Amino acid sequence: MASPLFFLLLLHSAFLVSTSASTTSLLNQTETLLKWKASLDNRSQSFLSPWVGDNPCNWVGIGCDRVGSVTNISLPNFGLKGTLDRLNFLAFPNLIYFDLGNNSLYGAIPCEIVNLSKLTFFNLSTNDKFSGSIPTDIGRLSSLAILNLAGNQLSGSIPSDVGFLNSLTNLSLNDNNFSGSIPASIGNLTNLSFLSLFNNNFSGSVPTSIGNLTNLSLLQLNNNNFSGPIPIEINNLTVLEKIKLSNNGFTGYLPDNICIGGLLKHFSSENNYITGPIPKTLRNCTSLERLRLEGNQLEGNITEAFGIYPHLRYIDLSNNKLYGELSPNWGLCHNLTSLKISNNKVSGRIPPELALATQLTRLDLSSNQLSGEIPKEIGKLTTLVYLLLNDNQLLGKIPSEIGKLVYLQQLSLAKNNLVGSIPEQFGNCFRLLHLNLSNNLIEESIPSEMSKIFALETLDLSWNLLTGEIPQELGGSRALEMLNLSHNMLFSFIPPSFDGLKSLTCVNISYNQLEGPIPLTKGFLHAPFDALRNNKGLCGNITVLPHCISKSQKKSSRGLVILIITPALGVLSLLFILVGCLLLIRRKKSEIKEHQFRDIFAIWGYDGEILYENILEATDQFNSNYCIGSGGYGNVYKALLPTGRVVAVKKLNPSDDNQSINLRAFESEICALVDIRHRNIVKLYGFCSNAEYSFLIYEFVERGSLRTVLSNPEEAAELDWDKRLNIVKGLASALSYMHHDRPSPIIHRDISSNNVLLDLDYEAHVSDFGTARILKPDSFNWTSFAGTFGYTAPELAYTMQVSEKCDVYSFGVVTMEIIMGRHPGDLISNLCTPNGQQMLLKDVIDQCLKPQRRNKVAEQVVASTKLAFTCLHSNPQFRPTMQQVYQALTTGRPSPLPKPYSMISLGDLIGHGHGIKG
Ligand SMILES: *[C@@H]1O[C@H](CO)[C@@H](O)[C@H](O)[C@H]1NC(C)=O
Ligand SMILES: *[C@@H]1O[C@H](CO)[C@@H](O)[C@H](O)[C@H]1NC(C)=O
Ligand SMILES: *[C@@H]1O[C@H](CO)[C@@H](O)[C@H](O)[C@H]1NC(C)=O
Ligand SMILES: *[C@@H]1O[C@H](CO)[C@@H](O)[C@H](O)[C@H]1NC(C)=O
Ligand SMILES: *[C@@H]1O[C@H](CO)[C@@H](O)[C@H](O)[C@H]1NC(C)=O
Ligand SMILES: *[C@@H]1O[C@H](CO)[C@@H](O)[C@H](O)[C@H]1NC(C)=O
Ligand SMILES: *[C@@H]1O[C@H](CO)[C@@H](O)[C@H](O)[C@H]1NC(C)=O
Fold it and tell me: Which residues cross the membrane (predicted)?
């Protein structure tokens, strides 16, 4: 028999198993971490360079319990690249907290993690590249509270074992490639408060057990392929604040008691197949801030379906089958910015009470059955940007009060029964891009004031009863791309000024009484016969029209018109800054070819060319007498324009690089910068370039740069502590705004005392924001632009990665410079030495200022210095964000001094474990 041998073998393998188990539990944690570090790419290893020695407990990102066993591994935002394959989790049986979010790690999630019975926090979000699926026995992580795998390329379905994760409060799987349906076992997770599954390929219906998640406050299922009804058990979720079900295939009715808990703020279920009425409980749901139900098949009478929502900002009910009338209640939603009920069957009048909702920026009631007049109260909605009332049955005259809507960009009143004339006040809506009054019964002539709408890109006045001549001023609307004047009763000649409509690509003047030559511009020259037909006698050098006979007549009349127009435009241009940007982008698209000499005038409305000449004149062709400074890219000149305005002109050094500038990117950048308004940022008015000169035009700031002021003893003495601290605050405010409050962050890259300008009140104005990237668009090749020596962050020596944190470092240097009255120089590198740390703050600060007796200011100087030191941390991850800095500087009084001011040393101001390097 072989049984004894078999027995022996069994014994042997059992022994093997037990030894391997015991050695794994004793796996050397130091060795494991170092092995993993070695498996990462070189840059990651340099970020982890403090990982040396045999005690990981004081390494960056590692935490241990009392007996030295690793409990925390926390390296979010560390720029790490590599896999987790070498990180043997069995070496960390006591691991509680694991955070590698926001890195560039990839590969699979190791299965060994399921053995970490103490793990409560697990975050691999936003690594972009983790792939594979969730381990099926994930349920063994019985302590897990937070599981965040969002923002990767994970696939497969949610294992039903997830139902064993009783402690889970936060499950975020959004932005992956997950599929399959939600397991019913999810109902077991009664502690769950966040469930984010959006942006995946989940399908099937949502299990009714979701109604057991009574602690759920956020439910995001949007952008998947879910189908079936929304489970009515959602009614049981009384603490829900945000529900997003948008862009799925949900059917059936909306849950009746969706707002039963009274906490619901956001509900979005747009673009599904939902039918039935608006739930009754929504009327009382005063907590609502955002409601999106557009693109469904909702039916019912909305006259009394909605109440008054003090917090409501955004509501969209478009593209449904709703009927009834608009409630005056909408006017009482005082925070409402967007009201969209387009494409339904709403009838009745537009209630004048709507004008009480004075925050409205978007009002879209198009494609309904509204009747009556447009209430003139609409002129009170002065913040409107979009006003769409087209495709209704509105009557009466167009209220001239629309001229008060100076922020309007899009106005459509088309397809109604409006009568009367076009109010000349429309000319005040100078930001309008799209104006459509077609298909009405509008009479009289086109008011010449329309030409004040510089930015206008599309103008449709077709199918009306307009008469008279086309105003020659309209030829000044140089941004115009689409012009439709067809089916009216316009007569006489097309004004020669129309030759200037260079952007015009689509034109239709058919069915009028026009005669004479067509303008010599692309839009007309390429127009098909149908766009010109049925007029009285148009001619031109194109195939579809007869040739013109008398050319000399036409020329002389054109010369006259230009003489009249030009001076008028010169004045207007300074009133309507900026609008030229858009126009310029358009013009460049068509006119500029690569490797060709370029003219760019991205400025001041549309007559950049005039301004260009004015500036050359004002500076006597950049004569050195007008030079007021020099910077990295060239000299700065002061120019007094004919209008009396003073501007600073930065003339760029000619450089071969100009050829490599990506024009489109360049122009959109300039436009973005031109749009910025912040009291601590020098306003950029525009940019001019041609073969001869290229220059940026800035607001003129009287006192010049902070460096100049600090280096002049008299002026520096003027700059007392209040003023200095205010400059630090201003600089922080500017940086915080550019980093955090813009649609996309803008990094300065060259903050130095040379770029901080002071006005007459010593208020800081940061100059040159964004220009580094414009002028050196090759942003990966950082070495080609090294910032200003003494201000650049240390990591730029070894990485190419430019982040906001580089600006934070430079901010730290400038702040020290303001406090010390001179560039801190070696002080920063000495801070990590005992000598440096023993230095007293009072000896370091600017000696030309009187010793500070007032305690409040002393506290602020100490706090600012301390803050500056955190900004100078050698590891960018540990520097605060500018938002945090700004908040620290502005909220309340800093903490009292730990000891008398005169005894505070620099060492006292450095945080623990601080790694300052020069
Ligand atoms: C773990 O490994 C490190 C480095 O390899 C070594 O110095 C240390 O003594 C080891 N510790 C144990 C407990 O084996
Ligand atoms: C729910 O949790 C309980 C207790 O942990 C467990 O016994 C049960 O099997 C779980 N149910 C599901 C469906 O996961
Ligand atoms: C949901 O709760 C009900 C009643 O409390 C219970 O019968 C059911 O088993 C639960 N479902 C799940 C999946 O936990
Ligand atoms: C959950 O909702 C269902 C259907 O609306 C209801 O019958 C049930 O009583 C609710 N359960 C709880 C625990 O409230
Ligand atoms: C709305 O609230 C009022 C008063 O609080 C109450 O009388 C009414 O029944 C509520 N309506 C609904 C549909 O909940
Ligand atoms: C209205 O909006 C403002 C600004 O967003 C906010 O501060 C305020 O709290 C809002 N009011 C209500 C009642 O929600
Ligand atoms: C809608 O409801 C209002 C009052 O709630 C009523 O006066 C109106 O006739 C209804 N409209 C339709 C079309 O049923």
Answer: 560-585
Task: Give residue 98 CA to ligand 1 midpoint distance, Å.
Answer: 22
pLDDT score, position 610? 65
- Reply yes or no on whether the pLDDT at 557 is more than 80: no
Distance CA 671, CA 906 (A): 44
pLDDT at 694 over 80: no
Select which of 750, 768, 807, 908 is catalytic.
750
* Mean pLDDT within 444-449: 92
Task: Write b or e for each residue in 22-43: b if 16 or more Cβ atoms lie within 10 A of its Cβ, otherwise e.
Answer: eeeeeeebbebbbebbeebeeb
Residue in 727, 722, 697 with CA at minimum distance from that of residue 709: 727
CB 134 within 8 A of CB 111: no
Spatial distance between the Cα atoms of 121 and 145, rounded to a whole number of angstroms: 6
Q: Are 667 and 603 in contact (CB under 8 A)?
A: no
What residues are in contact with ligand 6 under a 6 Å CB criterion?
310-311, 335
According to DSSP, the residues that pair with 412 across neighbouring strands are 388, 436
The set of protein residues with a Cβ atom below 6 angstroms from ligand 5 is: 280-281, 283-284
* Biggest CA pair distance of the chain: 122
The burial of 5, by beta-carbon neighbours within 10 Å (0-12 exposed, 13-18 middle, 19 or more buried), is given as exposed
**Does the active-site annotation cover 807?**
no
Check residue 299 and give its pLDDT: 94
Show the beta-strand stretches assigned E in 131-224.
146-148, 170-172, 179-180, 194-196, 201-204, 218-220
247: left (phi over 0), alpha (psi -120 to 50) or beta: left
pLDDT of residue 556: 38
Half-sphere exposure of 373 (CA within 13 A, CB side): 12
- What's the rounded Cα separation, in Å, for the pair 211 and 352? 43
Closest C-alpha to ligand 2, atom 14: 163
DSSP state of 681: B
Cα separation, 662 vs 778, in Å, equals 10
- Overall residue count recorded for the chain in this entry: 918
CB 136 within 8 A of CB 161: yes
Strands 694-699 and 646-651: antiparallel
Distance CA 145, CA 168 (A): 4
CA atoms of 466 and 492, how far apart (whole Å): 13
Helix (H, G, I), strand (E, B) or coil at 776: coil
Which ligand 5 atom is nearest residue 280's CA?
Answer: 13
> How do strand 627-630 and strand 635-640 relate by DSSP bridges?
antiparallel
In angstroms, the CA 293 to CA 296 distance is 7
Residue type for 889, please? L
Radius of gyration of the chain (CA): 34
Write out pLDDT tens, residues 383-423.
999 999 999 999 999 999 999 999 998 999 999 999 999 99
In the chain, DSSP finds a helix count (H) and a strand count (E) of 18, 45
Using the atom order of ligand 4, give the atom closest to the CA of residue 232.
5
Residue of minimum CA distance from atom 14 in ligand 1: 28
User: Which of ligand 2's atoms lies nearest the C-alpha of 184?
Assistant: 13
Q: Across the chain, what does the average pLDDT equal?
A: 83
| Position 587 pLDDT exceeds 60 | no
187 lines ligand 3 (CB under 6 A): yes
- Cα–Cα distance between 653 and 695 in angstroms, integer? 9
Per-residue pLDDT of 733-777, as tens digits, reads 999 988 888 777 888 888 999 889 998 889 999 988 766 665 544
User: Which residue type occupies 242?
Assistant: K
First and final C-alpha spacing in the chain: 78
651 is in an annotated binding site: yes
pLDDT of residue 437: 96
SS3 370: strand
Element (H, E) at 890: helix 882-890
CA–CA distance, 66 with 55 (Å, rounded to integer): 13
